[in-house]
Amino acid sequence: MDRALASILASSFVTPFIASALGVALPALASSFGVPSTATVSLLVALTLAVAVFVLPFGRLADVAGYGRMFRAGLAVAGAGLASAALSPSLEALYGSLLVAGVGLAAVFGSNNALLFHIVPPERRATAVGLNSASVYLGLLAGPAVGGLLAQFSWRLIFAPAAALILLSYALVGRVAAAGRAAGGFDVAGSVVLGGSIALVVLGVDAGLWTAAALGAAGLAAAFLLESRREAPVLEVGLFRSVVFSASVAAAFLNYLSTAALSPSLSLLFQEVYKMAPRDAGFMLSLQALAMALLAPVAGRVSDRVSPSAVAALGAGVLAAALYLLSAEPSPATAPWLLLALGAGFAFFIVPNTTIILSSVPPSRRGMASALVAEARVLGQSLSNAVASYVLRSAPGVAAGVSALTALLAYISVATVFLSLVRHLSH
Predict the structure, then answer these.
(1) Could you give phi then psi for residue 199, rounded to 5 degrees?
(2) What GO CC terms are in its UniProt record (predicted)?
């Protein structure tokens, strides 16, 4: 059991690590392929979009086929994609490799939490979940710093630690029993409609094809209607009948939408405008994750004593204020403080908001609720990167693009504050 738990912890480190490391390496990567740095933000869209499209279907498939089997298959595919990314001869090949890696990571994250609950006895589950969360924060913390150091030699090196951890995870997990075997089969039609609609929205925004994005949004509405009539849906629409649950998931989505694009966009600002070395830019960007890791336990304790909705609204308010100040193009002296404020705001929002989500559903539905939280996260991240890609490519320069982007993200964060306050006042 301890080997399998170590495998899960290693896998949880990889996605935040590679996404944040890749963000720091974008200028070096752009120089290597001879393209504008703003054109490379779409690489993050490819990685996160693949996860967003497949994580819910793979979560349901893990229930049917077995958590261990899905977890191992995901590790194998993700490892192949990351190794291929390091060897990519062209930008197009790198896009393809990241899509493959994203599909594999979707299978990993669609099964790892369920696998954790299967292998860990009830009296140790809270500790195991805490360790898993810590692994995610460590990935976020290490990604920019390690990625910045490696990018000074070659952007290809940033994939080596991630691929090594995936290999280690595969070696450790062994042949865990195939738990699950849920009744009802697999909803192919719902998965296709949901995944295709998500892809249309994100790719439409990235390319500025607003008709495609609108069609994707209509497809998402159709997917909700379709899934509400399924006996074994890939998306359990019934959970959204709870106003608290719906508002909390929407707030989580908006929170990730307003923050995920910060790392790659600020990386471009620090390296191309402030002329920082990749190493220095990486260490600077790690400050946000450091504040998140240090303050998340504090946010949890405060939320236990005060209304979690009020704490979440406060956190979202700090995020909005910090984003607005970032839009004024901060100096290298003020940027670290704003990054610390962003990390603090994120911690004081996400911890109570997740608590509210999981407390608003019966224990028997928390697995699906956790999957929907994961979907809100990866969809928000993917769409955030798509927005950043479009805004930065459309701007006259990197500084102007980052300023416009952070101002837009600040307005989105204000919407998160509003949702949190409405939820708080409704109690």
Answers:
(1) -60, -40
(2) membrane
